[in-house]
Amino acid sequence: MSKIDPELKKKLLKESQAPFKGLRKILWIAFSGSAFLGLLIMLSKIASGSELQQNNLLIQLCACILFPTLLILDKDKN
């Protein structure tokens, strides 16, 4: 017979099943913002007439797809 409050026990069990969920969410948001900002800067350079390597643009596009996808997949299922 545990003397732990049932609400606290439920919260601790949830945290043990998905540790650092809040930190991961913050990181996915930060990485997504950085990827979109980088893409915006690259597109503005292309619009101004500067040449960019295609692989750099491809990396930015992949990051713009990957990080928001990870954020969506990391959402709470409940």
- The outline comes out as rod-shaped
How far the N terminus sits from the C terminus, by CA atoms, comes to 28 Å
* Poorly predicted tracts of residues: none
What is the β-strand count?
Answer: 0
Let me know the largest β-sheet: none
Rg calc = 20 Å
Question: What share of residues are in beta strands?
Answer: under 5%
Which structural class matches the secondary elements? mainly alpha
Helical residue percent band: over 70%
Individual helix count: 3
Order of helices and strands: HHH
Mean pLDDT: 88
Task: Describe the overall structure.
The protein is an all-alpha fold. Helices cover 76% and strands 0% of the residues. The chain has three helices and no strands. It has helices spanning 6-17, 21-47, 54-73. α2 (21-47) packs antiparallel against α3 (54-73). The radius of gyration is 20 Å and the shape is rod-shaped. The two termini are 28 Å apart. The model has no long low-confidence stretch (mean pLDDT 88).
Which features would summarize this protein structure in a list?
78 residues; mainly alpha; 76% helix; 0% strand; rod-shaped
Task: Walk me through the topology.
Layout: H1 6-17, H2 21-47, H3 54-73
Helix pairs in contact: 2-3
How would you summarize this macromolecular structure in one to three sentences?
The protein contains 3 helices and no strands. By secondary structure, the chain is mainly alpha-helical.
